[in-house]
Fold:
Amino acid sequence: MIQQPSSSHFSFIKDGILYIKRSKMAKILLIIILIKFLIFYGLLKGFLYPRYLKPKWESEQHRIESVTHDLIQPLNTISYD
Structure:
């Protein structure tokens, strides 16, 4: 008999889910991972990222002028003669 290749992928996932349901240690580790994810994603996104993503321009025109100035400004190159 020829086995279908797609069934092996489903059995791998199914076996993993059954292992997590049966194993107390796997449940504890999964809970720890979820708590860490919530802490890092929720707290860091909520408290730290808005400071970095806060717009530093007062208007669209001010943003255009700032970007244009940064693009036109020549690079400071250092030459070691």
Observations:
- The helical segments are 5-22, 24-53, 60-72.
- Residues 20 and 28 are 10 Å apart (CA to CA).
- The mean pLDDT is 78.
- The two ends are 77 Å apart (CA to CA).
